[in-house]
Write a structure and sequence with these properties.
Length: 254
């Protein structure tokens, strides 16, 4: 792992309480280049690509080969942002496997890696961090467990759920993560967690101004996947309509 990658991760960690962190997913070279040139702080090559790029019903179909292919493309388009690659489901079932696959993502161009879960992942996080690879945590709703949980459900609705999420976040903090994604956590709970943790929280589906930063799926932001738009998404464009209209005009010209 390069000192540049570690410095990028440390800079984001130290930004807690100083400035908001803007994160977006990216899955290909041109998107990564555009987002990097726009000044986005962190580019997440998420396993969400399974749904919005590859057409699977959820993220549990994504493999390491998928992730390596897309991480490499994003890395080629990036200069300044921190590039984080998701460890897909069953690629980190043990500390040794987690480290091996984290290194593969780094070799493909990632600056850091992300995995889902708290207490039971702490040993794996520590193994990766001890090897010099920054790790991004992920708590709240965990998409890789969607089949176990029977759907996507809001988290942190009760005091017991808050305590469980906090326990997981603390375990990740102690293991050395530089930041933690909070996904689909109710706003009041997300804000409490943000106030309790020493590392930045990056929210998605957690309400406005409850976390130290935000992450959005790029296709949600630009209107590139019209077949499903999460209720918390805030589209800033509608490229799917533009593409369809361009194709119709092209067909007419031909």
């Amino acid at each position: 792992m390069s000192t540049t990658s570690q410095a990028k991760a440390e800079r984001l960690r130290q930004s807690k309480g100083q400035q908001k962190i803007a994160c977006l997913t990216a899955y290909d070279y041109p998107t990564a280049r555009l987002l990097d040139e726009a000044g986005i702080d962190l580019l997440l090559v998420g396993d969400s690509l399974g749904m919005v790029v590859l057409g699977y019903p959820d993220t549990t179909h994504v493999t390491m080969q998928h992730m390596l292919h897309h991480v490499a493309a994003v890395a080629r388009g990036n200069t300044n942002a921190l590039v984080v690659g998701d460890l897909p489901i069953h690629s980190y079932d043990s500390p040794a496997e987690a480290l091996e696959n984290a290194q593969l993502l780094v070799d493909a161009g990632a600056d850091a890696v992300k995995l889902e879960g708290g207490v039971r992942q702490a040993e794996k996080v520590k193994a990766i961090v001890d090897a010099g690879i920054p790790v991004f945590g992920h708590m709240g709703m965990l998409p890789q467990r969607v089949l176990e949980e029977g759907g996507y459900k809001k988290k942190g609705k009760s005091e017991a759920e808050y305590e469980a999420i906090l326990e997981g976040c603390r375990a990740l903090e102690n293991a050395g993560v530089f930041a933690i994604v909070l996904e689909s956590v109710v706003p009041a709970t997300a804000q409490r967690l943000t106030e309790q943790l020493s590392v930045p929280t990056i929210g998605i589906g957690c309400g406005d101004n409850t976390c130290d930063g935000e992450v959005a799926v790029i296709t949600d932001l630009v209107g590139g996947y019209p077949w499903f738009v999460p209720p918390f998404a805030k589209p800033q464009a509608n490229i799917s309509s533009d593409i369809a209209q361009a194709a119709v005009r092209y067909k007419g010209q031909v």
